[in-house]
Amino acid sequence: MIYPVIWHNNSVTLIDQTRLPNEYAVVEIHRSEDMARAIKTMIVRGAPAIGVAAAYGMYLGAREIETTDKHEFWERLEKVAQLLRSTRPTAVNLFWAISRMMKTAYETPGTVAEIQQNLLQTAQAINAEDLQTCQAIGDHGLAVLPTTPEKLTILTHCNAGALATAGYGTALGVVRSAWREGRLERVFADETRPRLQGAKLTAWECVQENIPVTVITDNMAAHCMKQGLIHAVVVGADRIAANGDTANKIGTYSVAIAAKAHDIPFYVAAPLSTIDFDLADGSQIPIEERNPEEVYQVGDTMLTPLGVEFYNPAFDVTPAELITAIITEQGAFPPDELVKLQL
pTM of the full predicted structure? Predict the structure, then answer.
């Protein structure tokens, strides 16, 4: 199993995903500022994994606060929360985890030391719950996949695997469950420009577990569908609006349009914490725009001439009408039935 975020020896160990697939390396995080930097620079990435990392980041920040006054402690912890919230604006799991940690801080009776200990326990609970959630998503996803052919070829975009969660994965959790039950023939992984998470991370995960995987460029997806090579599409999500509109890595919308044109089911796999019921539709989802260097440069190699301009949104929004079902830990639901899940 692959675990990108682990609490170990009184610090957080992260798999450095910026070095994969050529080098497997880990980073030890001891301070909240370092966790914020790791999230911002995508050492840790993927909405659920960001949420878990942020929860531990909140505890690390709480541990750094030296006071016995609870009001001063809360005030300084709010600043830690503000720092972590500023790292990635689209992934709602980040804000969900921080809110849960702040709720723990305010509602825990006793001393500051007792609050700090309870914050660690809450972060560990978020970590464990996400792993269980992903395994449930995988099994619920398996149940709604097409029944024919017996062995399916599944296309995915970006990386929604163990590396993007506490382990097992959301979209790749469905893939893993299908592989376990003999229902999977092959994964087709979009390379996912500009950061190449499909080529680097999804492919790496599949290779680790001997799951057959074929990497294609993003602009090959429609061609592969037309050739009959794809039986289903399963992707992850960074934020889902109440009506089912879904923000995921840039390029997902194009894949959904192609799937609709070829009558191929298009599934979104995500935990309930990814659904933002405060947003009526996808037009309200904030879209992060990242450094244009990701577009014009790969490693030390420049891809474009000097003088051109760049646009680098990290996400796009797939309308609910293009989504067959949203697979959660409570089951798979058509987008217009998400309201049933609101607490």
Answer: 0.92
